Known about the structure:
Layout: E1 5-7, H1 11-15, H2 18-30, H3 37-46, H4 48-58, E2 69-72, E3 80-83, E4 86-87, H5 89-93, E5 105-111, E6 114-120, H6 121-137, E7 145-149, H7 154-165, E8 169-173, H8 179-186, E9 193-197, E10 199-202, E11 205-208, H9 210-218, E12 225-229, E13 245-246, H10 247-250, E14 266-267, E15 271-277, E16 285-290, H11 291-305, E17 313-316, H12 323-330, E18 337-342, H13 352-359, E19 364-367, H14 369-378, E20 393-396, H15 403-412, E21 418-421, E22 423-425, E23 430-434, E24 441-442, E25 448-449, E26 455-458, E27 464-465, E28 469-474, E29 484-485, H16 492-498, E30 506-514, E31 520-525, E32 530-532, E33 535-537, H17 539-546, E34 552-557, E35 560-561, E36 567-568, E37 570-575, H18 583-596, E38 605-608, H19 622-629, H20 634-637, H21 648-658, H22 669-672
Parallel strand pairs: 5-18, 7-8, 7-9, 9-12, 12-13, 17-18, 17-19, 19-20, 20-21, 37-38
Antiparallel strand pairs: 1-24, 2-3, 4-14, 5-6, 10-11, 15-16, 16-29, 22-23, 23-25, 26-27, 26-28, 28-30, 30-31, 32-33, 34-37, 35-36
Amino acid sequence: MEGEALWSPxxxxxxxxxxxxxxxxxxQHRGLHFxxxxxxHRWSVDDIEAFWAALWDYFExxxxxxxxxxxxxxGMFGAQWFSGTRVNxxxxxxxxxxxxxxxxxxxHHLTENRPLAxxxxxxxxxxxxxxxxxxxxxxxxxxxxxxxYMPNVPExxxxxxxxxxxxxxxxxxxxxxGTRTVVDRLVQIEPKLIFVCDGYRFxxxxxERADEVRQIVGSxxxxxxxxxxxxxxxxxxEPAVAGAMAWSEALAGPDVPRVAFRYExxxxxxxxxxxxxxxxxxxxxxxxxxxxxxxxxHLKLTAFHFNLAPGGVMFFYSTTGWTMYNLLVSALLSGxxxxxxxxxxxxxxxxxxxxxxxxxxATNFGASPTFVQMMEKxxxxxxxxxxxxxxxxxxxxxxxxxxxxxxxxYDNVKQNLWVTSQSGGTExxxxxxxxxxxxxxxxxxxxxxxxxxDIQAWSEDGKPLVDExxxxxxxxxxxxxxxxxxxxxxDKRYHEAYFEHFPGxxxxxxxxxxxxxGGCYIYGRSDSTLNxxxxxxxxxxxxxxxxxxxxxxxxxxxxxELDAGRFFMPLFLKLKPGIALSEALADxxxxxxxxxxxxxxxxxxxxxxxxIPYTLTGKKMExxxxxxxxxxxxxxxxxxxxxxxxxxLDWFVEFVATTSDYARPSQLKSVSR
Length: 673
């Protein structure tokens, strides 16, 4: 049952947790005593400057100068953190190298075409310093953009850290992305250098990417250098792009001792990376974070909400096109090791990731509710086949979790297990609501609001709700807010995305319920962004491809989060006169989306409709249609008076009443009342 108690941490587990150590430090160094997590959280959002200043000292953040001000803000929008400081994210991420035992593992790595291996902290630091020195020799200066089209392998992590180390701005696209999806993102930030690979292997099948690489490089006119990794075909070392430098050449320089290397420390507004989260119109949003904001947030997250420390091993399945890749790498801040895997999560079998977790002695394992559902249907019981004695925590992310998802882990993996769920997003590079190792686990429930995050559930008229579903809002500033969207004059798109609905308050676009004890439940997107298996897709990306298909006159796409981590993403098509929706046409559209965007952009079903509903201001009505499909009453989902073509909604009302293609999630039915 939702909210049923499943597990409680023992006194010893609580006492050795990172959050307990922080509370002891606060008492010793600040004279502050907190009885429990809720009291600590309340202080962290009531006195936000004191909280974040305490983190600065607790984690011994290295800066050329101490902060002149912890927070400068006249309101939430435009807040600036740690003015006067100069820090470098990569410097902190690699500082454990100096304390690590000889040959201590930093990265376990495996791909479908490489055997399981490991990289030590010393080797990681060595390669980062050599490559960073090469980048400087190639003319890369602080603020230059470096991008990648690379798989989830150590080379990508080395490239990422080397770029950060010299003050360059990083951005990543996964090699399964099609050319248009990559170019629409990367062209916005005018990169100077790109790391690329020749292809990848997934599910036992090879995907050559040389043609896509040439098209991408040809579409980025600001590029001055290409660095080529022969990953799929190591024997074919000749780059597919004229003038490209081979990865082996980029790393061929002499070793650079730690004491001789200079990290480029940058000011508190200097960009760290650009991550893309697609909007409903136009190009994907180029969300830009800074070094100091992500640094203090990730130190907090990995220590207090992941409970990571030296000796830990973090494994979360991800591609390089998802924010979870950045968060996986951030685990190195804690001195823990990480596991990088590139390939299918279910090849050669559904239990493959558990085998890898056992082989790497993972202490923290990440999974999605969809992955759990597949294992449950197959009757898998990992506890019977793998040594998971090192496993302490499971992080369920990528979709709203159900009580059954949590219970599955206790029944089939391990009874003494901290099963957690967290939710945040690309926009913050972290989590709003998450976990604490000091709290009990309740079925389907996210344990708490994260420290420093003043999260509330609001009604449509801006009133706080308890035990009711509302909009997820954050009412006070936090360091990992984007500093801006790239190439967004006057921060117009940034303001419209998060601060327009409730003026001066961050509205994230998720439905949330917060109960009286502080437990949280996420019920999916409240806006028109398509959240599919944790990866957010912009409707505009789909339209840009679909509406270039000759037979299509107009289209509308939505995505519904269903029970047990399932999704239903239908595409509604208005076809040109005389055209019928045949299987051949559906296959043509799916193929175009798969090639130009990615497999995630391909809808679950396609339907021909007479009209696409529009507002009086000419906007497609994705949100009302999605609400209808999710069980809202029609008068709550849409206002016909605000529609350009009110009759167009009738088809969707009938569709909801008669279709059996999907099942609406029961937990959202209360919203329609």
